[in-house]
Each structure stands twice: as structure tokens, then as C-alpha cells.
Fold:
Amino acid sequence: MAFVPVARLSEIPIDRGMRVVVDGVGVGLYRIGDEVHAMEDACPHQGFPLHDGHLEGCVIICRVHGWPFDVRTGFDPDNPDGFPIPCFAVEVEADEVRIDVTKQTNDPRANRRRS
Ligand code: FES
Structure:
């Protein structure tokens, strides 16, 4: 699969994520300054969507039990060995945001949540 357009940059809120689905994969888009990050939209704790959590800087806080994840790396910022979430390649051209869910950008130990 290649990069596919998923959103307009102007549609992505700055204080929380925005969910899109590509090839059956739910992905949260996060706008951090001039950059956009894409991270699988499933909390590794109990699978709830992370995109509507509370975004503090680069960290999204799961609204259910408060687990934090850095949207740039997929890791809990205080636990670099635990529960990484897959992050995906992003391209932004003009106002168009594209992602490729076959190109994982973070630690390959990050796996889709298994339930
Ligand atoms: S479901 Fe996210 S912290 Fe529990």
C-alpha cells in the first residue's frame, strides 16, 4: 500500500487527535506544531480509542485509565520498554495529509494490540 490521503491539515484539532481508518486500521492523527503524527488508535491496555484523550504536548492521555503515550514514538514516556503502539509514516503536502499504514516508523517491537 502507498500513502493515501486521509485528511486536510486544517481539519486536525490541536488539542486532541482525529481518527481515520485506512485499510481497516484505526489511526489517530495528532498535530504537534507544524508536524503531524499518526499512531494506531487503540490503547494497549483495554483497546479504547486514544484519539479523543487529552493531548498534553506530544503525549496523549487515554481518557479511560490515564495511560500516557508519546504520539511521536508510540511509547509511554516513562517506560521505554513497555507497550509501544505502532506509528506510521506521514506526508503533508499543502493542506493534504497522507499516511501509509504499511510503513511503521517506530520500534518494530510495537505490535498491533492482540485481544
Ligand atoms: S484503556 Fe487506556 S488506559 Fe485503560
User: Anything to note?
Assistant: The chain has no helices and nine strands. The first strand starts at residue 4 and ends at 8. The CA atoms of residues 29 and 100 lie 12 Å apart.
